[in-house]
Queue: 4 jobs
Job 1
Amino acid sequence: MTVVGYSDKLSAFPGEKIKFMVSCDSVEYQADIVKLIHGDTNPDGPGFKEEFVQTGASGRYPGHQQEIHSGSYVVVQDSAGFQGLDAFALQAYIWPTTPAKGPQGEMKWCSSTGWCMSANGVSKGAQGIITKWNAASRSGYALVADEDGCVALWLGDGNGGVAKISSRAPLLAKCWYFVSTSYDRGRVVIQQEPIVGPANGRFSLPYPLDGTTARVEQTTTVRPSGAPGTPLLIAGWVELIENGMLVQGGKYNGKIDRPRLTSRPLARDEMDAPQGPHVIAAWDFAHGITRKGVATKKATDLSANGLHGCIVNQPARAVTGYNWTSQDMCFVHAPEQYGAIHFHDDDVADAGWEVDFELTVPDSIRSGLYAARLRAGEDEDEDYIPFYVRPKRGQEAKIAFLAPTASYMAYANDHLTTNAALAELLVARTPVMGANDLFLAEHREYGLSTYDTHSDGSGVCYSSRLRPILNMRPKYRHWLSPSLWQFNADLHLIDWLTEMGYEFDVVTDQDLNLEGVDLIKPYKVVLTGSHPEYYSNQMLDAVEAYQRGGGRFMYMGANGFYWVVSYDPNDPNIIEVRKGDGSNAWKALPGERHLSFNGEYGTLWRHRNRAPQKIAGTGFVAEGFDISSYYRRNPDSFDPRAAWIFEGIGEDELIGDFGLVGGGAAGLELDIYDQELGSPPHALVLASSEKHTDIYLEVLEELFFNVPGMSGTQNARVRADIVYYTTPNGGAVFSLSSIAFCGSLSHNNYDNNCSRMIANVVNRFLLDEAPPSTAEAAAVVAR
Amino acid sequence: MPQAVPKEHEVLVGVDGRILQDEVKPLVDAEIIEEHRRNPIGFHTDELERVLIYLRKHQLQQEGKLVIVCTKPHKEWCIGVLSGVRGIPPTILRDQVFSSREEAEHGIFLKRIKDLGLV
């Protein structure tokens, strides 16, 4: 791609500034601001629609390339304490995940050639553990896992003299080791010792690790330099410093617990709380854990020297340490057993690019979804950087589209097509890759989604939006859907609201998380996106408060309110999720299901007794992604309290047997009405979908045992239920329960039964008068 | 998602080979090939679906797995071969160009059954 970019803000008020960061291979590029209406380029639909917006940001800008340096680490600024050491020891507990061979081939950084590829299964290269090492001048001292996967001490005098002394015993992946390297006036001691507990690592008996214990003593004439000006790094080393920007080399994969720098080696029993003048620095990654989590980016030094570090690129926090026993499953209950950080060579929290241009959101602009459109090169290669404009306070429309931006972030730059063996089975089609996907397949440094695994196989639990997110773009077609998914699919709804002449505002999950119900309280009607899957505590509370307060809530999709997430309380650009016990792309390791950002239990909301059925009347039951189907009316749809919803729709009409997402309105992911999980007993189940293929299977969290007969043609629970019920104070909920639905709204020039049904509901919900009550509709039926 | 581990994978490949010979191969005939050509995505006979599920698994290996690459939106599709290595994008096979996604889907089906010696 010739040109790509991202913005500092996701949403802004008129008058506010948004900064855009751009990387461009061409000499220059054209930037314009456009309003996005319809992002689906399918020739069978209404086609792509955008409107140019006159702003001061329009213009030609010089292109320059900007790179992303992925990889997490701790950086500690240089200090006099790191210099002139005649004797020192570098020690830690480590749980390396790719000490020699990764589960897949890796990109690696070579000082001489830059990025290069190691063949599948070949050494990843040396990885820094605690280093005061400058790769450019080969000076300093460093505890590393070397290219053979052995613990080693590197010493460099900065004048060409380098000593690399290895334990000569390769470490085993995913096992804890106490590693110790020391230097004392020419004498070097290297030690590595497996720490095997019943639950802390891959094995509970030490036999596979017998050969990995080592102690090596050696002398060297190399007198290490203190590498003045070079910061100390944990989980990497300083490859170079370019224009003041540190580029990390020796990217370490795995956990590090209790890293120590002392003037004499510590015995094992001194490692936990070292004290005394010989302690130069003793970092405690559990420091800062409170009842509310560990959202800090500071790595605290417990020594008197206060050599605190800064944690870069959001490695995994709240992970089990070398001494974890499995008796406590939550880090806030046993912080001393959670003294580790899990670093990855592909973590990215902030691309950190220079600002290329700014937009002051025009005062006259209406709330909506906008984008900076960038065009460059002879082929007019383009990128769109989306952003949302909020209404001025007090000037809200009656309708709000609540863009599920937390869910967009969860899927940001996913790599399932190239990395997930199950992807094709899940969709029962061959995944299709487009230009953006090919770019991401090559540029892994653009970071991962919460559907991916890191290069060491561990799950990705954070996603940041401070990087180009190339699958959150208009025109983008996603492999998981027969056509569109998430951000671009939700433009189907924006287009319908626009074409039908409704005045509406657009607000985001990020705003809802920060402001709570006050954000949506002004609106008569709030519509969700097609897949509002990732919800924080604050967001769920806000939606429930809106419903209690008489709001009218239209759930325009499926598999919503599903995963527990938290936004970083100090940075609204980052979300966290811990997967497990659901339909999951990965599973959090034992003891790591609690969110580091707030200390809460993660996984699914239903496991916290807040199932989606309580919020929307329906919740996730089945998924399949090959083709979509239709709904058929249920007897409840003829109930006088609901008949208005079907005005203009025939009694026997199939609803939505057409559409741009899989050819029908009921598809991809489906939700079901279930009183046991909290669907209101007084709800009317108006219509249900049918005739789904056998690719549609009941989801894991619904199963007790895996038995035959769980798929579409054999299982009446594989269906989407359209549900309507009223809530206190004149409120109501209307739920579609299918992700594909909004793709059917534009069919036949917006004149179709899906469009008619949604218009009937929106129009009724806009009235001051309360919608027909369903309160007396049903008694509680015990299952 | 499962990661390939050498020893486990070796065992899996052995059992998978017998599944291919005993359960899948006997199902491949002109009838299911024609059925797939007419309708590559959606409802299928049990016979065709069983063959497809086998092919889609690709022994849970990403290296050498086929994908569709859309080379011109809504106009042109090719077959891509995954490298199985992070950072190396798929190799695009330009010898065959398809004018619809469905044609590409069928092209991959034919290539897979041919490569496995099923036709």
Job 2
Amino acid sequence: MIDAVEVPPPAPIQRYGGTGDGWFTWRVSDSDDLIDDLRRLAERHGDGPAEVIPTRPDVVIVRAGSIVVKAHGPGARREPLELRVRAAAHPALRGIVLGPVTEEVAVVRGRLVTVWPAGTPVDPGDPDAAPWTAAARLLARLHAVPARALPPLPPAGGPARVAATVARLEGRSPAADLVRRTLACLPLPGSPASPGDLPGGFPAPGARLPGPRVPLDSTGAPGHPGEPGASAAAGSLAHGDWHMGQLVSAGGEWTLIDIDDLGTGDPAWDLARPAAWFAAGLLEPSVWHGFLAAYRAAGGRAAGAEGDDPWPRLDLPAQAMTVQLAAASIDKAERAGRPLDEVEHALLDTCEKIARARNACHGAPAQ
Amino acid sequence: MQCPKCRGLMRTYERNGVHIDQCESCRGIFLDYGELETLTRIESQWSQQHHSAPPPPPPPVHGAPGWGAPHHGHYGHHRQRSWVGMLFST
């Protein structure tokens, strides 16, 4: 079924070397042993010969016929993952999020491993054919599931990932400094721009993302403290790391995959990537407007109701995501020793605009 | 007639029953008594004929955030590896 994906070369050292995201590295012999064990596990659950499926550098996926086994990133913690796998198996998420083959979380050479049905991902070779409408509908359906309908879940990924991605930047290049400076302008947990932080730097489970005491909209005017979505976010589900790689077609229908960041939180963060791409001028306006319209038509309310200006809700997540995407891409470019390309420059230009807009906010007289 | 402002020569035109004196040098216009009211009346008749109902308010434009740049997009980037990579990866 994963016919769109080429089987990678057998030498795993190429995939874990310095060419990728460079999040985690470990000795090649360790990854060889891990892959051998994963192959055996996959063949035990599956119905075909085991093959390694290319994915991001901190994760290993091995397929055997109709199933895949996934070794989660080295930093993954067992308890939140178990809660998330259990939630993915819950009937309330059927048809929205891919359910696991088993709710059991195995440990293979120190790595947490889960087992899933195999599906066909979106073809990266044909980005114009990406199923934006299907994705929008799935996110809307996910966001409509009340968190209380599921077993308890940890907070969704999103806000924490931004700071973590920027923290991985090593260089002192002007680009890296710009990204750090822009992050510091954003009222995110743990940032100087957020005087109302919770201790510990991250929102309490299910809490609304802490921001300035008076929420600011894009113009710096007081925001919409009474808006429904902001306060309802506590009871909302969010995927936590949505992008086009987080969809597979299984049984003829698209479903969301990768529950590693699934949890409670502000679902507007799930729209943050396309919103940031659009704002940076990378995603065609027609694609963005179609995605947003499909999301709202399917009942999605993370960006306000139909007809509302979505940006009071999307500004902060999309700005934070722009910073994260810029950080990740310049990190990649710097590690590969190549100059920044047009896409990366567009992200940096947008960072500069964000910093300017946010600093203008801070400089505005209190209202 | 001389222009009260620049002393230039004023020429008289007649348009729809309204006398208009325009200075040939500074282009200033002089209206006789009641001619401004006549013009206002003609204007309101015209707009009633052409806009019998008040125009509907324009739909809200929620195009783009102030901090973004979609009006001068980089849509030629579509085959760039970094864009495809970003679209599909964490």
Job 3
Amino acid sequence: MELMTITTTHYLLLSAVLFSLGVMGVLLRRSAIIVFLSIELMLNAVNLSFVALSKHMGSADGQVVVFFVMTVAAAEVAVGLALIVALYRSLGTTDVDKVHELRG
Amino acid sequence: MDALFFYLIAIVAVASALAMIFGRNATHSVLLMVVNFAMVAMLYLTLGAPFLAAVQILVYAGAILILFLFVVMLMGNDPGPLWEQLRIQRPAGLLFTVLLIAGLVPVATMANVTGGQALAPLSDDPKVLAESLYSSYLLPFEVTSLILLVALVGAVVLAKRSAYRTEREEELHLDEV
């Protein structure tokens, strides 16, 4: 892997780093909003590797999958943010450590 | 030149992701995610996927992150306790992240995946994507519309203010949300 010629490997490595950063955000932060943003970061990193491999394989299938991931991410964000708002309404906080009761 | 461009974008993307995770202000974190998504959109451009780059900006930066901003502003941007209650959680989280990177890097550099050659140009055209989407991926496409409908209804049901206030809400005096 040469340094000055950009290959698929470079994109995959960047995608791996971004994904790991997303995992780190989920593991370390306790604010539900930041955890959720980190999940978006992970989805985005996977999208990047899909597009890179789609180009590597010379096929458009990877890009179609990215479309679906984006759509499902949009749906997930709508429901997830509604959950966070409901959580804030019943607990007065978005700290995920505070969410340890079954009763609302 | 291409390599320089890639490295610049990669550095900005990683730096904005790090700043997002370690930021103390939720609004700043959301805005840093806009930067990150814009950088990834530029990478899509370099990968010959201009349509996806536009969708990335429109859907992620334009719709999803605006939704995040609305929610952050609704909650008064209260970061709450920033870190964990368990003392072991932070070192354990960092350890797992390092282990994950150590595990992913060999996979990304596997020779039989990448071949190591420069990227071949892909005859990219929104038309190619659309043909694929409406022929071989027609069923997933239709299911997607159902998912969006369910998400829409679900979001309204979950976020709707209920007719009665719970005891907890009375205790917390949460009138404004």
Job 4
Amino acid sequence: MKKLNTLLASLLLSASACAEIAVIVNPGNSADISADDVKKIYLGKISSFSDGKDALPLTLKEGNALRGDFNQRALGKDDVRYVAYWSKMLFTGAGVPPKEMDSEQAIVELVATNPNTIGFVDSTNVSPNVKVVTSF
Amino acid sequence: MRKHVTTLVGSCLVVIAASATADDNLRISGFASLVGGTTLDGDGYWARLPDAAGQYATGWDFQTESRVGLQGIYTIDKKLSLTGQLMIRGVNDFEPQMEWLYATYRVTPDASVTAGRIRLPVYHYSDYMDVGIAYPWLRVPSDAYSLALTNIHGVSFNYNLDWDVGTTSFKFYTGQQHTDPNKLITAIEQYKTEQLYDDSGKYRGVRDIRTTKDYEDLKGIVVDTQIDWFNVRLSYLTGKEKFTYYAEGAGSTPLFGGAWADTRFIDVSVSADYGSIFAIAEYNDYDNIYSSWFTSLVYRTGNWSPYVFYSDFKGVLRFIAPGGVTAGFEDGVTGSLDDKYHSIGIGVRYNLNPRTAIKAEITDFTDEGDAAVFIDKDRDGNSDATAFAVSLDIAF
């Protein structure tokens, strides 16, 4: 029984680790957005898309597992380094961290209506009214 | 009067913050560090931080380095914002002071102009040396961070260049600042030449002197380049400064100093943040006054980050008071005392959660120069010390 539990747990873990994270923008956004651009936008290194329009990155609340996965895979930072990084940026006036949304659904809804936003969701939560630009 | 105004401004900011947090245009955030330290060996340890913070003489001290910062960013419109940062420091008896207050105008998404009271950005960690959660050490290795000027009144122009492989930020700034008294330099001079002893030779404190430092026509540039895990930062500052030394009871007649002199400060840092390793080396040279540097290695493993650092300070300028040096341990060639010291630090950071860390550090300070750097009970100019400190750092 214990073995089975361990097996189940590891299966679940690997399933969550393999879930794809889709980066989404408004369908009207025609800018080229690479994985590297996503990283720079989410770290405040650049604040506009390649077409010059303002980029407004959206994330989930601190402690959210998908947010943790995204920060690790797309930005190469664990939660501790993400907070340290944005503390530095915020308290030096260099930028403000991505806006925190309550849920993936809230991200999808805002991205569908606001052409400046960029967000990420579990790829199974992508809806037709947003456009996937890359995934991690 | 000044104190009252600062307190008033402080309270107003807090009130504004409290009443306006529901406003989407206002972002309030803050950070705090509770630092406690003691001297394990020697007459006392002083980290020589801005405002003379970091003094540990007897027993445990939880005040000298502890601090709370509150920051408000008010977005007026898409292009214009106002940032205020209030610092409440133990070294200032927890009197709130307006650390920064500046307006930022975004000319383009990549270019902005900032005007007001801003941080002098000479060091790698200048802008966030108060934000303990943002760096691995208990304190930024302070032997290499001895500039007596922290904030200026001025204007800066900032430009971010994204060149695909990396990003480079440019900052051009100009400004001025008058400090009276200059708490850091006053304390340095007090321990260097003004220690007092009673008839039996027992240490009884320092003489009540005052020093001021004025800085004008400051013009600087910072070029900060990040290529994936590699960072190089170059800083160059020129301007003029005036140092004045007033003896106890001498009123407004300076004992010496009082002349303007051209000044130049350069700083270079190279750092790598690769996987579980963070390594940095930073060097600076204050023309005709001192050169200092530090290097550190940090290893991240889970929530633990043990670290080591080495930091070094070498003074070049020597003031000679009228009548010469009388302390009895003068340098034979120039007749004045030289400042030279280094520290080795070993510490660890433990992350309780992403917004909370506790740290502990043992700092071994070696005084190699003639001048006493802190309390010198046996009057030999040697202020070697070993200190231990712990901290709790949070961001909110």
